[in-house]
Amino acid sequence: MIAYILKRLLIGAATLLLASAVVFAVMEVLPGDPAQVMLGMSATPEATANLREQMGLDQPLMWRYISWVGGLLVGDFGRSYTYSAPVSSLIAERLVVSLPLALMSLVLSTVIAIPVGIFSAARRGRLPDSIAMGTAQLGVAIPNFWFALLLIYVFAVGLQLVPSGGFPGWGGGIWNGLKSLILPSVALALPQAAILARVTRSALLDVLGEDYIRTARAKGLPRGRVLRRHALRNAMIPVLTILGLQFAFLLAGTIIIENVFYLPGLGRLVFQSITQRDLIVVEGVVMLLVASVIIVNVLVDLAYALVDPRLREAA
Fold first, then answer.
1. pLDDT in tens, 231-259
2. Between vectors from CA 169 to CA 283 and to CA 98, what angle results, nearest 5°?
3. What is the architecture of the domain spanning 88-314?
4. Are 92 and 266 a contacting pair, CB within 8 Å?
5. Residue 260 contacts residue 164 (beta carbons within 8 Å)
6. Residue 283 to residue 167: CA distance in whole angstroms
7. How far is 70 from 77, CA to CA, in rounded Å?
8. Mean of the pLDDT values across residues 264-285?
9. In this protein, which residues make up the domain named ABC transmembrane type-1 (predicted)?
């Protein structure tokens, strides 16, 4: 098992290194001079050259990449010239909004999707199954930003139950902070819950056709107990895969939702940095998202071994 864990960690580290090279290369091939964009077209060549020197853009490409990766290893993401602050501090300030939002969305989508998937699989081919899966299909088709605007119109403007946007900060109380994240988390969670419910149903239906399920039913066990204790655990591997992918998507998918709700999170930071051509901030945030995807996938691989004893034996 230890060798299995070490192998997954080494693969994750190699993937992260390859991703850093891709992110750096993509940022380098973007058209336009960042220094020229930041200073404006009326800037003198001397001012542009001075800013390029301060940003390190006059250094060789390979040296800049090595310096950037070396800084990432010690937690130094560089310095933003737009905000005149370290990128790590900017990310930390915005992460206290984006991370709770992603976690709330993940918990909400899981709490909704798995019971709906179980309910639908237990009633395969009946009217409740058709209604549940039809609703899930509608949830997959609706764009989350349109759904967010609908939520604002109904619950913030019409009923005035929650704020329509903005974030008061955690210093004003945990409830006030959570209240401002309710609508964004719902807007993010429901489309993902629709996908997860369909995957849960399909995985359960595959398992319910196995011989050991028929044997358990032949012994006289109630259908609900067979579904919960025998079928659900064996159907969890594809569900865990989707959960791991969804967390990464929710953390990265806040770019649109945070701009709709005017939340000061990572998504809004990336959007502002792109418009201001502050590429060092974009690189730092993208690498953080890439690292989160890799870490979550490693944790999901380890969860496979906990759920399925056969994988532990193979490891």
1. 777 777 778 777 777 777 777 667 778 88
2. 35
3. Orthogonal Bundle (1.10)
4. no
5. no
6. 25
7. 9
8. 81
9. 95-300
Q: Give the 3-state secondary structure of residue 80.
A: strand
Lowest mean pLDDT among 32-36, 48-52, 189-193, 264-268: 32-36
CA 253 to CA 266: how far, in whole Å? 10
Q: Where are the domains of the chain?
A: 16-87, 88-314
Angle, helices 236-252 vs 174-208, to 10°: value is 150
d(CA 264, CA 67): 29
Written as one letter, the residue type at 104 is: M
Classified as helix, coil or strand, 85 is strand
Write out the two tokens for 27: 């940022």
Nearest residue to 109 (alpha-carbon basis) of 192, 48, 8, 17: 192
3-state SS class at 79: strand
d(CA 205, CA 124): 8
Instruction: Tell whether the torsion through CA atoms of 90, 93, 96 and 102 is positive or negative.
Output: negative
Q: Report pTM.
A: 0.77
The per-residue b/e assignment along 236-253, b for 16 or more CB within 10 angstroms, e otherwise, is: beebbbbbbbbbbbbbbb
Q: Any bridge partners for residue 85, and if so which?
A: 80
